[in-house]
Design brief:
The protein is mainly alpha-helical and 487 residues long. Helices cover 73% and strands 5% of the residues. It has a four-stranded antiparallel sheet with strand order 1-2-3-4. The protein is globular. The two termini are 31 Å apart.
């Protein structure tokens, strides 16, 4: 006859096995394919992202030339380009705060429509002959277009999390592919349309397509049914007090600046190779294409892993090596600046930039949840606004710092400075997350199935959050900093 102790152990083992089986069945249920409405929403979001970044880059081949004919200097023209990112940086947090009150879908649709109208208006600037008027209108219209882009891009991140809650990282990665396509195809499309119809045609085409797309989203995007009970957005101040949020913001700034500093510096760096504009455009296209191709994969991987911070750290480290070779850096005096070295370095850089950037949104969201925020549409709006703001800050810093360093010290030193910034950030990220995380393995009696418990201390002097990463037997435990973890 089985003893009472052995009987209890057997029942406990069966309960654990039953629990594990239920958890596995739950996970299998969650991995359902996209519904028709999700697929339609994905197409609409991808189209808007493509047109948005196509509109942003479409003027690169011809605007400086046309502006110079009006009397504008290259420096001023560069500020017109950078002003777009500056407005997005300043306005994204505002939209993140007001979005729960005015509605995510309304922000997305009205922002798209407003951006399309401003694009068409920008195409009329060629009719202005006065230098001062042309310059002022360039900044004003470009700024209003950036406001529209800020509204729908911030709303887009919230829409992704709500419509694709189980695949948000992979979907963001897929949409980043269309961002890369828009950035790389924009100059080619703009140059072709400019050759056919002059200054206004590129802006009219992109603007009208964007205007047509805007009302379609009223019917094609599904309603946001999740996280509608609580609409309070929370506080940016509270969010920025979390150390993990600040570290992730640092990653975003460095990655965006790394990408942005190449805009004003790469073409002068490639001039000694006597490449025509078409071949230089292909090199830019290669960089954006590698970024776009690998974004979905890194997004999918960061979604699947419980511990994903190392993806960002490794991406920053690879950025360092790519930029050191791209110069090549004066430190690597044994390397010769060849076209193939530049092509290989830029291709790899596109992959590593995607690697460092893709987990950042999830990192901000997870940090907010552990830091005391509730999972509401207001919180998602807040995170989306912060992400757009910080990334745009990097887009402003990169071209300005890159242009200044290039003018005074040359491309090899410029590339080295940004390489060192990536290396230092990678080291800081690794040290922060490694000291923050502690793992202990506890054996489940009579079952030999380990429970990996992760203690995450955000140095806020309050509680330590404990997560079970291998099963859902242990959900959360709060203990003081001085207590030990027990099975």
């Amino acid at each position: 006859m089985m003893s009472e102790e052995k009987y209890g152990a057997t029942i406990g083992s069966q309960n654990y096995e039953k629990k594990d089986e239920e958890n596995n069945n739950e996970k299998i249920k969650k991995k359902h394919p996209f519904t028709l409405r999700q697929k339609v929403a994905l197409v609409m979001l991808a189209t808007v992202d493509f047109m948005s970044f196509c509109s942003m880059s479409i003027m690169a081949p011809f605007y400086p030339k046309e502006a110079a004919a009006k009397g504008m200097t290259e420096l001023t023209a560069g500020f017109v380009f950078g002003f777009y990112a500056l407005v997005v940086m300043l306005s994204s947090p505002v939209f993140g705060k007001v979005m729960p009150k005015v509605g995510v879908k309304l922000c997305f649709i009205s922002g798209t429509l407003f951006s399309g109208v401003c694009s068409c208006a920008f195409g009329l600037l060629n009719m202005v002959n006065d230098y001062t008027t042309f310059t002022v209108l360039s900044f004003v219209i470009r700024g209003f277009e950036a406001l529209g882009a800020s509204a729908y891009s911030t709303a887009g991140y919230v829409i992704i999390v709500n419509i694709f809650p189980e695949h948000s990282g992979a979907v963001r990665g897929l949409l980043e592919t269309f961002v890369g396509l828009g950035m790389s195809a924009g100059p080619a499309i703009g140059g072709l349309l400019y050759a056919v119809g002059g200054f206004g045609l590129p802006f009219y085409v992109v603007g009208l397509i964007t205007i047509v797309i805007a009302p379609m989203n009223i019917y094609l995007l599904p309603k946001l049914e999740k996280f509608t009970m609580e609409q309070k957005a929370g506080s940016f101040t509270k969010l920025l007090r979390l150390p993990s949020v600040l570290v992730t913001c640092l990653i975003l700034v460095v990655v965006a600046a790394t990408w942005g500093f190449l805009d004003p510096t790469l073409e002068p760096h490639l001039r000694p190779f006597n490449l025509d504009a078409g071949r230089i455009g292909l090199i830019f296209l290669l960089l954006s294409a590698m970024y776009g191709i690998f974004c979905p994969g890194w997004g999918w991987l960061s979604d699947k892993l419980d511990t994903y911070w190392w993806i960002m750290s490794v991406g920053l480290l690879i950025n360092f090596f790519c930029l050191m070779c791209l110069g090549p850096s004066p430190v690597l005096h044994f390397l010769t600046n060849t076209i193939w070295l530049n092509i290989v370095s830029l291709s790899t850089l596109g992959v590593s930039v995607a690697m460092a950037q893709m987990p950042t949104y999830r990192s901000l969201l997870d940090s907010a949840m552990v830091g005391g925020f509730t999972e509401t549409i207001g919180t998602h709006s807040l995170i989306a606004g912060l992400w757009s703001c910080v990334y745009s800050m990097g887009e402003v810093i990169g071209p300005i710092a890159g242009g200044a360093l290039m003018e005074n010290y040359g491309f090899p030193v410029t590339s080295t400075v940004f390489a060192v910034a990536n290396l230092v950030t990678s080291i800081l990220v690794t040290l922060f997350f490694m000291t923050r995380t502690k793992k202990e393995v506890v054996e489940v009696p009579k079952n030999n199935k380990p429970i990996i418990i992760t203690a995450e201390n955000f140095n806020n002097g309050a509680a330590v959050v404990v997560k079970d990463q291998s099963s859902e037997i242990v959900n959360s435990i709060s203990v003081s900093d001085s207590e030990c973890f027990k099975s």
